[in-house]
Known about the structure:
By secondary structure, this protein is mainly α. It has helices spanning 2-31, 34-50, 52-57, 61-79, 100-112, 115-126, 131-138, 142-162.
Amino acid sequence: MGAQKAARDEEFREFTGSAWSRLLRTAYLLAGDRHGAEDLVQQALERAYVHWNKVRAADDPNAYVRRILINEHARRYRRRPAEYLVEAFPDRPAPTGPDPDDRAVLLGALSALPPRQREAVVLRYWEDLSESQTAAAMDCSIGTVKSQAARGLAKLRAASSINGLTSIGGSR
């Protein structure tokens, strides 16, 4: 029995190593700050570990754990008042590429979205999931995904036009 547990633990470690950065990026966009995102990913992975046999038997273990992550975010939101993104991390160097002010405006606008709109935008346009995959991840209908994503993008576009950013979100 000990060899099976060791093999199971090693398989979970490998999965965690390959999925960590992707889950952290998604969690950051959902939670709004790096520390909250790390906590969110750790909570999701704790749940995944407890049910690892079920997770690894799923058609797509990454999607299964992403769903756990979204559920953890929803639980956190129900327990606490909304938290807002900070403009910059004090422990990170200045980003290269796009203007840091544009990034701050975009992250601020993203943090102002209601949780369901933020989930829809992050899953559709950051994770690049299809409408049906996003609906399954959010446990809602495709119509809800379309309306929540459209409303979220409209708010992001309004924030970008007010602040002089380039166009946000293309047509899908």
